[in-house]
Amino acid sequence: MRLQYDAADEAFRAELIDWLAENTPPRELLNSEKLSSAWMPDWVRAWQRKLFDAGWLVPGWPPEYGGRNATASQQMIYFDELSRRQIVRTWNPQALGIIAPSIDDYGTDEQKQRFVLPTLRAEIGWCLGMSEPGSGSDLASLQTKAVLDGDEFVVNGQKVWTSGAQHADWCLCFVRTDPTVPKHKGISALIIDMKLPGIDCRPFPELTDPDYCDFNEVFFNDVRVPKENLLGTLNGGWPITQGSLAHERAMLWIDHAYLLQLAVQSMVDLGDRIGPSGTRLGDDPKFRDSVASFQVDAMAMMAMGYRGFSKFMAGRSAPEHSLLKLFGSERMQQCILAGAEFLGPNALEVNEPGPRLWRNGSWMIQYLRSFSATLPGGTSEIQRNIIAERVLGLPR
């Protein structure tokens, strides 16, 4: 495979790099700890707004939406350069990568004006109400109900694993509006103000970091939502769920590719450390072989990603993205575990710095956190089913 960009694409890259060099926030801000994926301190809002005003927030969108009508190849360059530098566009990724595109795809003109631009400008933050205690991978079995009462929907039920719900201003929530039809056909999407009476958010502290609470249980008790907040058509929410998941999965592969590269680089950095045997880890043939194996996998993952991207550019389906999601999240987890095992007991030390992949933490803390990377955008089990059925043609 030979990957080359034309002159216009390279000019786009040069302009982006120059702009980032002059405007990127200090590294200590980019690496600062956050409270959830919908919590946005002032500097985050200012940074996202600066990107929006300069046309660098969503470059594939038109200029009035904070973009510059970038081509698909230019968008690839954009994400490549940001990931390479570990620069985030926002601390509310579900709003920028999933919810704003969904409202732009399915919303009325009034909804687009009311929600899309304020979201892109970081004036409002979002959570996504999908999973329920009994409806995780089988999203179509969701049971949270919304009954139309005059000009309002009355919502009752529970969501779980709702990222950032306690800090979100709004929720794009999927509810059952017709229990009498097949489960895929009775779902609607509602835009819900998280300050409405009857909403109770209960955050889950992480075992590895009690101060960080991203996941929430969210309870809806007779919550009255205006009818005009219906996104799309009544009982037409299932295509929106699929579009939302597609937006999420499109964001993930390059992130996983660079997370794997960062994990490999962290292992390389361990080469100068003294291992449990009292010798330099880099002098251990087993350590060098392990690092080389992970490096080859990281390079192969990038090559496969570009292969899938070239298919996308040609208008063909790209099953590579399911392979990349599965391979990237699990191989990264194995890489972190390998680094911890080579370090030995030191990997258990709380103050022992591990790879900077999500937040600060030791090698073992990061290994525990790595399990969560196998869940978003479709669990490893779901990805294996997709690969088996849609790529290999195996029976359901």
Overview of the molecule:
This protein has 396 residues and is of the alpha+beta class. The longest helix has 32 residues, at 238-269. Helix 8 (285-313) runs antiparallel to helix 9 (320-343). It has helices at residues 7-23, 27-30, 42-54, 72-84, 93-106, 109-120, 238-269, 285-313, 320-343, 363-370, 380-391; strands spanning 126-129, 145-149, 152-160, 170-176, 187-193, 199-203, 216-226, 230-231. The protein has 3 domains: 7-120, Butyryl-Coa Dehydrogenase, subunit A, domain 1 (Orthogonal Bundle), CATH 1.10.540.10; 126-236, Butyryl-CoA Dehydrogenase, subunit A, domain 2 (Beta Barrel); 240-391, Butyryl-CoA Dehydrogenase, subunit A, domain 3. The strands form 2 sheets. A 4-stranded mixed sheet has the order 1-4-5-8, with helices on one face. A 4-stranded antiparallel sheet has the order 2-3-7-6, with no helix packed on it. It contains 11 helices and 8 strands. Strand 2 and strand 3 (152-160) form a beta hairpin. Helix content is 45%, strand content 13%. The chain starts with 6 loop residues before the first helix and ends in a 5-residue tail after the last helix. The chain is globular. The model has no long low-confidence stretch (mean pLDDT 89).
CATH superfamily of the largest domain: Butyryl-CoA Dehydrogenase, subunit A, domain 3
> Strand portion, in percent?
5-15%
Strand order of the largest sheet: 1-4-5-8
Low-confidence stretches: none
Main beta-sheet strand count, sense and barrel state: 4 strands, mixed
Q: How many DSSP H or I helices?
A: 11
CATH class wording of the largest domain: Mainly Alpha
Q: Determine the fraction of residues in helical runs and give it as a percent range.
A: 40-55%
Task: Calculate the mean pLDDT score and round it.
Answer: 89
Rg computed from alpha carbons, rounded to a whole number of angstroms: 22 Å
Please give the alpha-carbon distance between the first and last residues.
33 Å
What is the total number of structural domains? 3
Q: Per CATH, what is the topology of the largest domain?
A: Butyryl-CoA Dehydrogenase, subunit A, domain 3
Q: Report the strand count.
A: 8
